[in-house]
Amino acid sequence: MTNAQASLAHLYRVFTKPEGQDSKLAQIERHLSDNLADFLSRHVVASNRSLEDIEQDFNQSLIPEQPQFVSEHAEQLLDKLVAHSVNTYSPRFIGHMTSALPYFHLSLAKLLVGLNQNLVKIETSKAFTPLERQVLGMIHRLVYNHDDNFYQQYLHNANRSLGSFCSGGTIANISALWVARNKLFAPRGKFRGISQDGLLAGMREYGYEKLSVITSKRGHYSLGKAVDVLGLGRQSLLTLPCPRQTLDPELALKEGQAILAEGGKVMALVALAGTTETGHIDPLNELADVAAELGCHLHVDAAWGGATLFSRRYGNLLKGIERADSVTLDAHKQMYVPMGAGMVLFKDPDAGNQVRHHAQYILRQGSKDLGATSLEGSRNGMAMMLYASLHILGRNGYELLIDQSIEKAAAFATLIEAHPHFQLTTSPILCLLTYRFVPQAVQSILKGQPELAAQLNPLLDELTVAIQKQQRESGHSFVSRTRLEIQDYDSPINVFRVVLANPLTSTTDLTDILAEQERLAHTLPQYQELLTLVSRASI
Amino acid sequence: MTNAQASLAHLYRVFTKPEGQDSKLAQIERHLSDNLADFLSRHVVASNRSLEDIEQDFNQSLIPEQPQFVSEHAEQLLDKLVAHSVNTYSPRFIGHMTSALPYFHLSLAKLLVGLNQNLVKIETSKAFTPLERQVLGMIHRLVYNHDDNFYQQYLHNANRSLGSFCSGGTIANISALWVARNKLFAPRGKFRGISQDGLLAGMREYGYEKLSVITSKRGHYSLGKAVDVLGLGRQSLLTLPCPRQTLDPELALKEGQAILAEGGKVMALVALAGTTETGHIDPLNELADVAAELGCHLHVDAAWGGATLFSRRYGNLLKGIERADSVTLDAHKQMYVPMGAGMVLFKDPDAGNQVRHHAQYILRQGSKDLGATSLEGSRNGMAMMLYASLHILGRNGYELLIDQSIEKAAAFATLIEAHPHFQLTTSPILCLLTYRFVPQAVQSILKGQPELAAQLNPLLDELTVAIQKQQRESGHSFVSRTRLEIQDYDSPINVFRVVLANPLTSTTDLTDILAEQERLAHTLPQYQELLTLVSRASI
Fold first, then answer.
1. Which Pfam families does this one have (chains A, B) (predicted)?
2. Which of A129, B202, B386, B500 has its CA 20 to 30 A from that of B101?
């Protein structure tokens, strides 16, 4: 055997022979399976090693020439990667929308890779294609609640589509606005439609002076990307002020009508059902009226909040969502599915045809290939994860998860309001809320003398940033932060942002987090400065 | 305990307690780990159950109310889903770019879900962010081969980017052309750039009569989607004929100059390094000259062929790729990583800034959040899979895989050419080739009397479709088919398309596949018709 043959034989082994039961990789797998929390707490080191320091472990730009043993590499992954990952499973990681997942997803992830289907076309995803269509149908029904006949007609229809799976909410939002744009500039006369002839020809044909998308200041940043990529430009995105955290329908209507009066056209109104920053829900019914009045597409970005529909108690917070032309929903948020399970749904099963495309070797006319109406091409079978979750948890299970999250957030809000040194800045509607640390002495001054806010808030802003950073770096818990305009003040303020989606987060976790923040605050120079300022102001 | 509390407790168990060692899910996992080929051959039923029939298993649009036991659901997944999946691991599944994967990806998939990081921002992906940047750097260096200084400067630079990971080649191609478009319509004077002011204002400012993207007829269908979504319209995509399967630089230059002469502008030239249909590589160096001459962005879609760069023997087939402004590469194709690992790379580390965006709660100015320049938002840590592969296989391992694929395709081409009843329609450059079944009697007539082609080819087309369909449905092996124009005939013909990427595919597999196709052909009515026609023609 030559050297090359020997190497090739060695290589084939990687494709055909699993690692032994005692191998490092097998050990890691067992640990993950047996006790994920323990695996993470042992291997994710809560160090305050700086990012710049971690980067030193990843500073090679040359691909190593020689192969490495799997076990040796597994050790390195533990040391370099896992050790400095973020423990998103932890009940005290409540800063973002990534939370603990049900155990069965670990096994399913392995099955998914073992099957390695490509859902762009049936030839590489036979049963996965109908499965994905069913899952889209189930979520479509959760949102739009059509009858059996409707779903019998459209669930597996080759020429229609109830929506698309995609990598996440951003692609879902872009897909929805892509459809909205193409629908608006439909073919007529010699104009073959925007898909064929482009935006410039469309604007000429329809004679619009300008094109706009209306949303609130809480609109997700992906909307800015969407109007950029779609050729409208970010100037076309009207982000209306929302000091009460929801879009005022009257304001939206007024602004929309002003655009129409100037010869412009509103392409879409984007309502938010669970803003990323505060979890507020726009008045969907009223905004549906506004969209009807303006003659525009209504898109509801329910990436985060859409799962609330599982709850019979809280689902009607989203009343009116069934009037949306399109809806974004992320299963990797409140549906507890691993990262990468976004969905866009269309009320009209014909909507996807606005962006239908074909190729010679796949996506042929009349095929049921899912890739024919999706923005993405090759995709994996993430729909299986949601399919399994919908069955294993059931609607009742999801309902319980949603209800307990919302009620936990309400309880945390009560804790914060009862605490002398914290200020609740936005009340939770779903399981998101924002707050900040404000020493009691400062709070009483702020209440009595709102004109002092302009002076005190910048210092409080600094304090918030410093506490959040220290807390993150100490690694015991994590809240995020954002900058918001709220009703009480003229200028935006920095606030902590928490998302109470992890079912394992307990009241003890929450009180401990407040205690830690208070402790950290006392060590910070901004705290002393504030007290000094206040003592002067009191004199 | 109330009913609700009991249900909640039950639910928490799904988040905290793994399935037992004897559970169905644990059994599935063990089978996957111990012998993937056996798992697939036992569970993937090679049935010719029709798609419509399979759809009956996925026709529920109501989410089940009640939770289901994990093991019960796992059984159902095996019966309904796995049984009717496609065995992409099989050495006889050679129709698409999905192939066997190294074993370690099964374990890593589990680790990935266990960690469930979100790479849009560092706060949810601490070490994964530098890891992804390193992987992008390694692949960037494989393509562009800059020196150490370059990578030291840019690998972890907050204000620069060497590229982006994304779900696949389609998003990569769209991202590349998005950057190209925004670069072309840069801010000047009162015009704030296309990202801000949109395409219409950009066209006015720059005074272009039309905007074009040039590629060949083999350009991936995602390019059509890209010009649609970017607002240019599909009419802007010039797909030039390429009867020899590669884009003729002279033709590209001529067409490009014609556009310029009419007051138009060529936004980008897209060269293909490994066409999806035949694996041919456009003359990159010459096309780089053309792009320079036309003053346009050069994008190379190397989603499939880019991995050839690992090979010292065949890598220079892609000579000139280092002159591309952007390159698409899919790790889930010839890098043997699970589905969902696309990349776009930019020669200029400043290019990504054409689409840079910020938000209040993440992607802040100066942060190293990867989401600031990516089309997608939340993303999982697929980069880990490629990182591990690059280390465990090493460049040498990848080189061996690439070399043996290319050499296997050459050997298969020889087999086909030696076979009396098959016709090689495009020779393999990489590991893709196309061919068709043409009975010897027909072949000799076709050779002597090319005017008969117009009569015979439609029947041969039908035969190709029928053989491919029967073969797919019988489930023992799979080749795909496409429709191509080739040099020999005036009109496009249907051909089988094979991709010999699976290292486990042997010569026996290939001879058996030809034998199966020949056997199937004999049972088909088109075959008899052809023979009848030929016997008449011979008389």
1. Pyridoxal_deC (PF00282)
2. A129
The three-point CA angle A326-A327-A329 to 5° equals 155
- ipTM of the complex model: 0.96
Same domain, A317 and A428: no
CB B182 to CB A116 under 8 A? no
Would you give the DSSP letter of residue B231? T
Inter-chain touch A81–B127, beta carbons under 8 Å: yes
Kindly report, residue by residue over A149-171, the tens digit of the pLDDT.
999 999 999 999 999 999 999 99
**By the 8 A CB rule, do A123 and B86 touch?**
yes
Q: What is the DSSP string of B15-57?
A: HH-PPPTTSHHHHHHHHHHH-HHHHHHHHS------HHHHHGG
Give residue A34's domain range: 18-85
CB-based burial of residue B252 (10 Å sphere; 0-12 exposed, 13-18 middle, 19+ buried)? Answer: buried
Q: Please, which residues bridge with residue B424 across strands?
A: B435
Helices (H), A449-491: 453-474
Look at residue A336 and tell me if it is in a domain: no
Same domain, B190 and B271: yes
Is B513 contained in some domain? yes
Q: Do B308 and B351 lie in a common domain? A: yes
Q: What is the pTM of this model?
A: 0.96
Q: Which of A375-379, B47-51, B181-185, B346-350 has the lowest mean pLDDT?
A: B47-51
| Rg over CA atoms, chain A | 26
- Residues in chain B within 8 Å Cβ distance of A115: 40, 82, 85, 88
The answer, for A125 touching chain B at a CB cutoff of 8 Å, is yes
Structure token digits, residue B493: 């013909």
Q: What amino acid is encoded at B16 in this protein?
A: T
Q: Which long-range contacts (CB under 8 A, 24 or more apart) does B249-254 make?
A: B249/B283, B249/B286, B249/B287, B249/B289, B249/B290, B252/B214, B252/B287, B252/B290, B253/B290, B253/B293, B253/B294
Rounded Cα–Cα distance for residues A454 and A466 (Å): 19
Q: Would you call B168 and A376 a contact, using CB atoms and an 8 Å cutoff?
A: yes
Judge whether residue B539 has pLDDT over 60: no
Cα B252 to Cα B247: distance, rounded to the nearest angstrom: 7
B186 at A interface, C-beta within 8 A: no
Cα(first)–Cα(last) distance of chain B, in Å?
91
Locate all alpha helices (DSSP H) within B44-147, ordered by sequence: 51-55, 70-76, 104-115, 128-144
Classify residue B12: in a domain, yes or no: no
Q: Which of A27, A59, A85 is the last residue of a domain?
A: A85
| Token pair listed for A462 | 């600094």
User: Is residue B502 one of the residues assigned to a domain?
Assistant: yes
Single residue among A29, A60, A85 that ends a domain in this structure: A85
Please tell me the total count of domains within chain A. Answer: 3
Q: Which of B272, B153, B296 is nearest to B219 (CA)?
A: B272
Q: Which CATH number do you get for residue B222?
A: 3.40.640.10
Condensed to tens digits (0 to 9), the pLDDT of residues B426-448 reads 999 999 999 999 999 999 888 77
pLDDT for res B538: 63
**Hey, of B13, B116, B120, which one would you mutate to test binding to chain A, going by the most A CBs within 10 A of its CB?**
B116
- The per-residue b/e assignment along A360-394, b for 16 or more CB within 10 angstroms, e otherwise, is bbbbeeebbbbbbbbbbbbbbbbbbbbbbbbbbbb
Nearest one of A386, A373, A303, A332 to A112, comparing CA atoms: A386
Place of tokens 């004077």: B189
Same-domain pairing of A49 and A183: no
